[in-house]
Amino acid sequence: MTTVVIADTRAGLEPALDELFAPFGGLAGAIPRDGRTVYVKPNAVHFTAHAHTDPAVLDALLAYLHDHGYRRLAVMESCTGGNFTRLVFKIAGYDRICRRHGARAVYLDEGPTVEVALRDGSRARISRHLHDEVVRRGEGAFYLSLPKLKTHTMTAVTLGVKNQQAFPAHASRMVYHSHDTLHRRLAALYDLVRPDFCIVEGLTAIAHGNLPLQAWLADYLVPMGVLIGGADTLAVDVVAARVLGYHLEEVEHLRLCAEWGLGESDLERIDVRGRPLAHFDRRLPDTQLRRFHPDVRWVVGRARACLEGCRGNSEAIQAMFYADYAQAAGSLRGGPWTLVCGSGFEEGDLDDLPGDLLVVGPCACAEVGAALRRGYPGRHVYLVPEHNDLMGITRYQARLMGVRPTDMVPASPLVAAWTLLQARLHGLNGRVPPIFG
Asked: Fewest CB within a 10 Å sphere: which of 99, 191, 394, 406?
């Protein structure tokens, strides 16, 4: 049977790691000490507090590996669109943790890329370093996935399988981020490269999806005090999903991985050790709180508006701006404005819209973008014609909300600018809004 451990962290992270690796012959049995580089892949999707793998767990894991004689260590990531990984590592403290333990920080959104074919028939550009070292196991690499225990508004959960969504370059992520394509894409990326071991960080689980909003953290954070790990990432995800309150059939990308034979998915055939699954009897919601600024008018198409793409990302970004930047200010600096997304607009839907307009997604841009520009002369009508253009959505919502990009970064503008310069000098290929406007 496949083994998955739910290790209790209340006695400390080192004992929890001992417990987690014990069924696999200890650390040396789980991760052979054969000179290969151990690549650790946390979920560092964004620098927002609690959005990423807890730095304390990354710190403890690297210390644990180093103390047991592993000297070739690397921490790799490519954050979400509209941000860049070097900045996320700096703000989250990952860069300092890497230096402390002699681990190399590998920013997958910097440097050359190569194109790969995926099982779902799509193609993606990924980091050449990732391709040569991890996908092809070039000089030898051990891949340890370290995601966070989170729900997700687009995929129900985001755990070990979805952790590979970081691998395509930003431009390669956008077109496959819709209701029809996202779930198969996630399964195909997992088929491309499966971790050798997976540890889900569950010190605190995240409810209500993607980014916990700092103004309402109490609604998002659920103390759990566990690490969930094993050598079969699909099995780990099935167990972690049950900890969050979800069954395999409710998580489409896990169901597809099971259908494609990419690991064990039957809980009856998974030996769950440590804390029993019966201790976790709460279902954490995966839906957004949907608290938006009252001066923003939403016009959503009646036929289609993908939560996996245009609508979901627009809502997440609008909630972030309202909760963490605009709520205290009350009224918007630039006045009311309108966001349009989806398809299937009927007569009257687009009449008497307030302020400037943001039209998000290929459906809305194709159906009503030109008509809105004709119908509202003298106003700004911003078009974001991709499914998942987080950079474009962030850039224009910031402008419409009266938020400067530097306001969004919890670091001085000089530090942010210097970090961006370093990333660009190293070949940044991520899509980042202009940092000063």
From this structure: 99
